[in-house]
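Hey team,

Sharing the Tail specific protease domain-containing protein run so nobody has to redo it. Sequence (486 residues) first:
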Amino acid sequence: MLTISGKDTEGPYLPQENAAINTRNLDHTWIGDNKELEVKNKLALGFISKHPYRGLNFYAQPNPDNDSTIYTPNEKPYPEMAFPNTNYRLLGLFRFWNVINYFYPYKYAIGRPWDSVLNELIPQIIHATDTVSYHKAIAKMAASINDSHGGLWPQVYDTFTGKYSPSFDFRIIANKAVVVRADSSNPQSLIKTGSVIEAIDGVPLKRKIKAYWDYIPASNNGGKIKSLHYLLLNSKNKTALLSGYQRDRKKFKAIIDLKERDLLKEYKNFFEMESPITYRLLEDSIGYVFFSNINKQNIDSIMQPLMDTKAIIFDMRNYPTNGTGTYTIPQYLLGERKMYSRLTRPNFNLPGTFKYEVANKGTAYSEVGKLNPNFYKGKIILLVDSRTQSAAEWACMTLKTAANVTVIGNQTAGADGNVTRTVLPGGYRINFSGLGIYYPDGSETQRIGIHIDIPVSYTINDVINKTDPLLKTALEFINDKKINSD
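Structure output:
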């Protein structure tokens, strides 16, 4: 192949500026380590690694819709292959492994050597004997990068967890499922708001969580638990035996009907990420804003009444669908414009390297705020948890440019930046974060999430009694009371 391709005429290339950041994912040591390569081939490959072709690559290209992410238009999806043969299963693995190896900005932060992931997955892909075992193998593949933007479409979990789930909504706390909204169509059911479920069909939920853990794509433990809501109480049968205890601690066992349910479509409602409240004044001159309800029409009517309060609480446990609050709220909070983020994006001149620059470089969105002598002077509180993901984390970063910001809650999803994808045989698309997102000082957000100042966790009793320990702690902090956080 090297002979057919002809003489390499490109000049040497290696990015020098911010070299440690730009090249931390770059690893060509396999050339020297490979005992099967002849010396002349090692020399040729070593030369190519330092003299890369800088034209348009056939397989890996800048996305025409967003040139900061990878685009693979010439990778065939083979949608007719419900269960690809061994060769095509391996092709899918090698596609995925290489696109992560060269174009995933967080490869260095996965938590284990990327080579070891390949060695682990090859036998699982080869020995997949049917559609179910193939789905488990590619689910584990998608989860291997530890990214809450990761995942497979169409989703494959139903084939091994079952497609039937309960009608009620619940929260997973301490390896138990606490019902937050019961099925109103069956008032006689033993499953009520506040019921705590410990097992399904005799299997403790703790054991099920452990069994599914490695198949869940997420940046951290909180993200894993959030995604487990989609399948923890699933079954291949249309009924299930649930056991646990009620609010009064009495034990129960109940056989319930299950149904097909698309929790992704119900995502915001299921996780209580919607609210009729846009803003309100709380006790003693404290403002509260449900961040995702901000829009161009209401932003000034929200902020102006709050400018003389002693504190504003921004509830970030939701998903902002537009940039109004993200880019405009800082104009009320800052006296001057400030940078809020840096990023890394793929450098297509040398696959495996990245460009490190100010986020939204060259646009009006590279900074937030404005010259404003009358900016807000009170305390600013951000409430966050695992529901604070991606665009919500990005919004937190713009708000944290203000001087008096305190973040209260528990670990956010740790998946900022946009989503990109590649295709696998069988028509599956596998997702990952396409940009690396960092604070202005270069510190991490991926896997870590938004930096927490006052950690507070939820307990089973909080969920049963519908109390909000994050809001309670925020009020205590604003009023300079002693804080008892978990």
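The mean pLDDT is 94.

Ping me if you want the raw files.
A.
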